[in-house]
Description:
A: mainly beta; seven-stranded mixed sheet; about 55% strand; globular; B: mainly beta; about 0% helix
Amino acid sequence: DAGVIQSPRHEVTEMGQEVTLRCKPISGHDYLFWYRQTMMRGLELLIYFNNNVPIDDSGMPEDRFSAKMPNASFSTLKIQPSEPRDSAVYFCASTWGGVGGDTQYFGPGTRLTVL
Amino acid sequence: RKEVEQDPGPFNVPEGATVAFNCTYSNSASQSFFWYRQDCRKEPKLLMSVYSSGNEDGRFTAQLNRASQYISLLIRDSKLSDSATYLCVVNRRGGGSQGNLIFGKGTKLSVKP
């Protein structure tokens, strides 16, 4: 069974450009999470969805960041306009509701570099 | 005080050594605890859950001390393949509260031949 799929794996862009990161959760999982990881701040939760509905976006750093989940098998994280301080690894993770759902399954991440 | 704190290391140990990591958490209402492992340039993966009574999985032993609000991970007979960063993870709320995992920054372990 495929795990969480993210694309692209690497993205290099210039400041001011729009960046779109994509995620396909594990089939059957009804929770989806977007995290950002940097050396300075570690792994930070940006936003999470339950049944395609955003539940908590308090971790989204500012209005330049937006996330959508149009259906159960696809989510996007968009940064517009991008800035050098957005450079990080962005992980998507998924899990299911109920007992055992504390275990989150992470995708391989997207390594974003903003020049 | 940070919600989850870990010694960043690195811990450099020889093969076969026993190594222990500690982690402290600030929210006394936290209910669930975990250790995740993250290899270099890879995603975090669950290593083991931490139960109140302590639990063991092969060479790995996890302990929880609620009174002192700390969690430990003991690795016995360390292998080269154990080299990774170990993330302490706390769920702020009870089981089923999937959106409340707080990750520590991790402790880096390097096992040398």
